[in-house]
Predict the structure.
Amino acid sequence: MATDSPVTYPCSLTLDVPFPDARLANAALQALRVDKELSALVQRELSAVDSTLKVQYKATTNRMLRVAVNSFFDSLALVLEVMEQLDVDVIEAKKAQEKTG
Amino acid sequence: MMTLTKKHRRIALGCEGSANKLGIGIILHEGTSLTTSTSTVLSNIRHTFVSPPGTGFLPKDTAAHHRAFFVRIALQALASANIPISEIDCICYTKGPGMGAPLTSVAIAARTLSLLWNKPLVGVNHCVGHIEMGRAITGASHPVVLYVSGGNTQVIAYAEQRYRIFGEALDIAVGNCLDRFARTLEISNDPAPGYNIEQLAKQGGRVLLDLPYAVKGMDCSFSGILTRADELAAHMKNGGKGPDGEPFTPADLCFSLQETIFAMLVEITERAMAHVGSSQVLIVGGVGCNERLQEMMGAMAAERGGSVYATDERFCIDNGIMIAHAGLLAYETGFETPVEESTCTQRFRTDEVLVKWRK
């Protein structure tokens, strides 16, 4: 191809994911931003502002956007479940409960 | 970075999910020198994603399985080990090789644990995990390693801080050949297709069907054998007869396939043993559970005045404890994976790892 027109990403989605505190929002950010997007047709930006995880997805088509965002939600759900069940304070509370129970 | 002499007890949690097994294990290393350190398995929990007969496990479904079971398995591993989080030194995870989405799903959870618990991460090569666990469990000192699973087939020998690949499958892994043939015969995948082929093969033996024997120097090839086995299976379903004019059964097919592919593995292993001057064979990986393979390898090793070392299904099938063990060995030499570098990779050669914990 002689000249490539720059790729545009007309389809976009913005998510603000609230976390209980900034520590958790930052942990989610660090865990989720490591893996690159699988497709060049999708662009992603992640950042943490106070206790909110800000997610910006842009894609060339709605289908690509849906696929990418669905996958992101699967990963986010895992991060949340790990935080809910395996954080230090949760484990310690469980152990204390088992001792007294 | 901590040095060995400062801490007598080191504990690692390891997470594995490169194929359809999700495994989390916790290991304890005690001792203050590389040569006198002992390893203890504190917990080793695993859950396998089994797909229906006639199908294989696809990356998306496998990753979904790992995500769904991670917290449950982690809690079981912690409860079984019965140690406080404060005693864990590092979180180890499988960096590769393996299937992309499953690897990443486990890495995301491992990263989260590392950040929540404030513990360093250690990325581990899956093959090195198998080798180090095999060494630890069997005590084999200088073996040629045959690593055989659904995803890998390699003949390995240690030299100068690398696990060198002497020979390997050129196309598909031997376990992949078995798994795909199980689909052809619609054999159950529970607990594992290879296990069910092994049981069915025990009912065979009346006739050895003709399958191509594909050893190429130090390497071997399995896709042609699979094609031929599939052809024979179709022939059998159409009422075809075997070489002796009699009908043959799935058991005959399983028997013939095993005899052929295992003989090939024995040949390339023996070739490596001759090169390296070793009489010991250590078999690791899921296919290493196969008793017929162990028997055939044992006969060859005995002829050379040596022996075969193998582990049981707790350790030869993919598991988290091998990742914890190999990861902790690396961590003890000062190795760590910063979270921003904790990616996964589908291709990760065994000899890419610098084995700093050995001379």
Observations:
- The radius of gyration of chain B is 21 Å.
